[in-house]
């Protein structure tokens, strides 16, 4: 009697194998969140943030800021082809730009057969020009598909 | 989905343990004799891996086991196998292959049940494997398309494995059995630049702990059996 039970359980166990579909159902973007904090009264008075955007010389487009409850943030990816990215911060309300030089290590990871390869990053350092930037801090250096990286820039 | 699969499987196994435990009560009155006596060998094949191949044809793997019975209470176990992954996709090609070996011991909790097993096991696992990728294409909204190849890399890895399982003799000298397994990485198998996707015998290369199921069919070599 016991052995029949074994066989029946074995039969049910086979049904627990799930069939995988061919779609990628996982998050594939590894993004860096850049938080802007304005302390300079001159920049506040000219509404510096209202027309803030970032771009890289290698891009054909740019990203404009949006305001969230917890601050002013921009999300973008780093270059998967090189170990550093050059990001330019610009505002229509200001005559000069600032440039970030983000240095990092890349890790190639096959997420799944359906999703293919993604790149995870670990930020080593961030340098910048200082036309308007006062200071910057790396809050979360690790960037992967489950968690965004985070840097904070003070103007 | 994967978690619910494991929970469902574990519930089934727990249910089985309870059922066996009830059967076991019938036997506890008699003291076991010759606890260190040698009672023979079993050869086994992990048929779960063949089922896996049906659902994931990019994988090919096999695993066999050899155990020796000491007093129906302790079983020395040697398990070994081979695993390959060959993925030829639009955005990448990935290949991985390697061998693994596990040494350990099973402890039978049945007091007197000479042909069956209900118990726990401990294994120490080793694997040597290699992997590589080419024609890897990564597309980014802003940075555009980037293609690269990652040359072959070799690794060695060690892990510990604990299991709970059952084996039942369904026909003379033929056993079916399965076990729920937790595997814990001890060392190796990590790469800061190119993370292994699947580690032979261990599973997902991203994780330090992997859960799994073994599902074996065994042949008991007739030896010292009444």
Task: Explain what this protein looks like in three dimensions.
The complex is a heterodimer of chains A (155) and B (226). Chain A is mainly beta. Chain A has one domain (33-154). In chain A, 12% of the residues lie in helices and 46% in strands. Chain A contains two helices and eleven strands; from the N terminus they run H-E-H-E-E-E-E-E-E-E-E-E-E. In chain A, the strands form two sheets. In chain A, strands 3-2-6-7-8-10 form a six-stranded antiparallel β-sheet, with no helix packed on it. Chain A has a five-stranded mixed β-sheet with strand order 4-5-1-11-9, with no helix packed on it. The termini of chain A are far apart. Chain B has 226 residues and is mainly beta. Chain B has a single domain (37-220), classed as Porin (Beta Barrel). In chain B, 14% of the residues lie in helices and 61% in strands. Chain B has helices spanning 2-24, 48-55, and strands at residues 38-46, 59-70, 74-88, 93-108, 117-140, 144-171, 174-188, 194-195, 198-199, 203-204, 209-220. Chain B has an eight-stranded antiparallel β-barrel. The radius of gyration of chain B is 21 Å and the shape is elongated. The interface between A and B is large, with 36 and 50 residues.
